[in-house]
Every structure is written in C-alpha cells, then in structure tokens.
Amino acid sequence: MTSAHARCTAALYALAGWPRWLAAGLCLIAATVAALGSATRSGPPPSSTIVVAARDLPAGHLLVPADLRMVRWPDSALPRDPMPSQAGAIGQRTAQQLFRGEPMSSAALLDPAVVSALAAGQVAASVTLAGRDQGALVHRGAVIDLYPASDQGLVGGSPLPATGVTLASGRSIDADVVVSNADYANTYLRLVDPAHRRINRDAVIKFRKQSMSLVVIYFGYAKRSDDPELRHHNIILGPRYEELLTDIFERKILAADFSQYLHIPTLTDASLAPPGHHAAYTLIPVPNTQSGIDWDKASDGFADKVITFLDERGYIPDLRQRIVYRSFITPDYFEKTLGSYAGNGFGVEPRLTQTAFFRPHNRSEDVTNLYLVGQGTQPGGGTPSVMMSAKMTAREIARDFAIDLNSVVGTVGTVGMVGMVGSAR
Ligand SMILES: Cc1cc2nc3c(=O)[nH]c(=O)nc-3n(C[C@H](O)[C@H](O)[C@H](O)COP(=O)(O)OP(=O)(O)OC[C@H]3O[C@@H](n4cnc5c(N)ncnc54)[C@H](O)[C@@H]3O)c2cc1C
User: pTM here?
Assistant: First the structure.
C-alpha cells in the first residue's frame, strides 16, 4: 500500500455521512488518474538498434553478412560495447561461441593482432576456465592444447583391448584403460568401429529410448523490492500433466502449454549477479530431436512466450521491462554441441526396461579395457547418480586390474585413465 493510499484510507475512517462519500469519490478519481498516468508511461522501453548473431556461430568463425542481423534491443539491457553496425564485424573472426540472437560486441571478436600471429592451421578462441586455480596456470601468450576425440577415435577393440584414443587432430594417446564420459550412444556409434561391437550394435543402441530434451533460457533482471516471493528452486506446472508428458515423449510435438523449473540462485547467493540484479534460468522439458522440430524457426517465439508467461502470470512482474540479459539453448545444442544422441538432456530414458541391469553397462561388453561413466550408464542421470556412476566405474576398473582403490585415491593416472576433453563437433 502506498503512503498516499494509507493516508486516504485513514482520513475516510475519520469522516462520517456525506463528507465521507465525497472524500471517497475524490480518492477514486485520484486513483483512476494515477492508474491512467502509469498506463500511459508503460509504453515500449527505450531501445537501440544493434547487431546480433543470426544463427549459432562457432568460435573462430569468419563472419559474413548472413551471420548477422540488426535488432532493436532495450537500452537497459545493452551489452557493455554494443555494435551499432555490421561493418565492424564482417570479415572478423569470433573469439567465442555465440548463440543465435546473442548481441555482437568487440569482446566477442578476436583481436586482429592475435589472428595475424597465427600460423597456418592454427585457430584462436577464448576458453572459459573452470576456476581460479586453473586461471593461475595461464599467462599471456600461453598455448593451450584442446583435445577433442575424433569419430572412430578408439584404438584397438574386440578381440583386441582398447589401447588408447585417437584425437580429431590425428594424434593418438596410448592408455591402459579408456573411460568415456561422453554420451553412451555416441561413444559407441561414433568412437568404436561397428566391426568391434557384437553387443552394442547400431540397431540395439538406436532401439533404446532416449530421454527428453530441454530449452534452457538464461536471463538476468533488475531486482525490485516488491518482487513476489520465489525460491531458489521453483517448479511451475502447466495446466496439463499426463497429456503434456505424452506430447513430449510419445507424440514428440511442441505443445502450446509447458511446465518449467525456474532456478534463481541469487536468492541464496546474491554475489552471483551484479548488485541489484538476479541471475536465473528456466528449464522447459521439450521433445528430443527425433521430433523433427525446426528449432531455428521455433526457438525465438518459444523463448518470448516463456518470458511473457513469467511476466504476465505475475511470477516476475514486468520481467520484459526489467530483463537485462537473455540467451537460450535448444535440443540442437544438446545434439550438436554437447554430442548427446538425439539431443537427449538426461541420457537414456529412465524407464523400467532401461534401468539397473537393463541400462547400458559401465564396463563395455564389446571392448576390453573400455569403461563408460555418466548419466547414460548405471545408475542413471542427475548429479548424485553420475557421482555414483563414477564410483561404480572406478570400482570395476580396480577389480579388473586388482588395484586397491584406497591406495590410489588422489593419484589419478595410476591406471592410465584418459579423459575425453573438449568437443570435436
Ligand atoms: C539445465 C540442466 C539442469 C540440471 N539440473 C540438475 C540438478 O539441479 N540436479 C541434478 O542432480 N541434475 C541436474 N541436471 C542433470 C545433470 O546435470 C546431468 O545428469 C549430469 O551433469 C550428467 O553428467 P555426465 O558426466 O554424464 O555428462 P555431462 O556433464 O554432459 O559431460 C559429458 C561431456 O562430454 C563431452 N563430450 C561429448 N562427446 C565428446 C567427444 N566425442 N569428445 C570429447 N568430449 C565429448 C560433452 O561436451 C560434455 O561436456 C541438469 C541438467 C541440465 C541440462
């Protein structure tokens, strides 16, 4: 309640008879005028024309006009150095991956001096380091090798044991044991020659049901003191439950309604966003890419719809005016960037016939010394299960190699494990 409103109500209680009716009438007129005033004020927020990515762009990409488009962008959400025209970007190379619709800025482009210093066959890209400790290892001018695994990258195979991995660069790394944390289906389909797969044949892998996929919208918005009470974790269910699941898993269509998990970690730790702001994402389950949905066409409208829903249903009132950052990923990102078969978000679908013994095994039946770990294997998806899967795989290796696990804690490499790092696709 505003203080003017409170004073008005108090004054009304103090009056009696016709003066009370007259005062009430005046209050009503004043409230109507105020409401009309604020309605007139809430027109479209001031905005500027800036350059954004017209499609998902990989790091190191040479920009051409078709990669860019001009859009109106709210002034309150402008990046630090927005690009007002395409001329500054065309012919430059991207320093990082850019999602479709993401604003172009000079920070997203490689410094021409760096590009000119590259030898033939070299590319430069900015790499996000996981933590401060890794940052301390890197100094200006340092060279970082990234090792994406290549297609058909496993060396050896049944009846021979795995003896290492071949990287996309063609370089081979020898190892006594190979552990794949990549998607289970693509580990076999892309990294192990079918000639070496008696159990995990293409048909068996493709027959398995894959989990749903996701649209995840990452956004930042300005805080307001009258924000409704939301939690760190919020589940907002749509009007339908079983039917929506049928649309996602069986019919594989993009339904008009949706349920979502809204995540606002800044309600727990405000330091995760600039002062006065929240950082959030909302995750919407959608069919995996076996649906054939064209996400290039559907994604912008879908993301607008979700943001409008949160705004108009009062979960985050005026979100469209308050939003300062927005980007999103779709099932295409899960498939093409993360290498998840059919764009699955959680590995093989956790249904009874794909659970426990029936779920892909952590020790390969086809290739000796090949082990799998992660959500596609046993026991299943979600961070706690994935940690358990790591423990199970480590135990299997220890048993196979007669290693006392207690003696190797903290000395990874003792059994020659090779992690697959980076992504070739
Ligand atoms: C938006 C979202 C929110 C989630 N929230 C929760 C939550 O709150 N709680 C929870 O418990 N779980 C949550 N999950 C699930 C959880 O994150 C996953 O189950 C878990 O991270 C899977 O771990 P993983 O090691 O199996 O796979 P990933 O973490 O996906 O790691 C596999 C890695 O392998 C890489 N890779 C693939 N192919 C290759 C290749 N050929 N060469 C090299 N690298 C390759 C991929 O790029 C990827 O980086 C969430 C998932 C999503 C998507």
Answer: 0.69
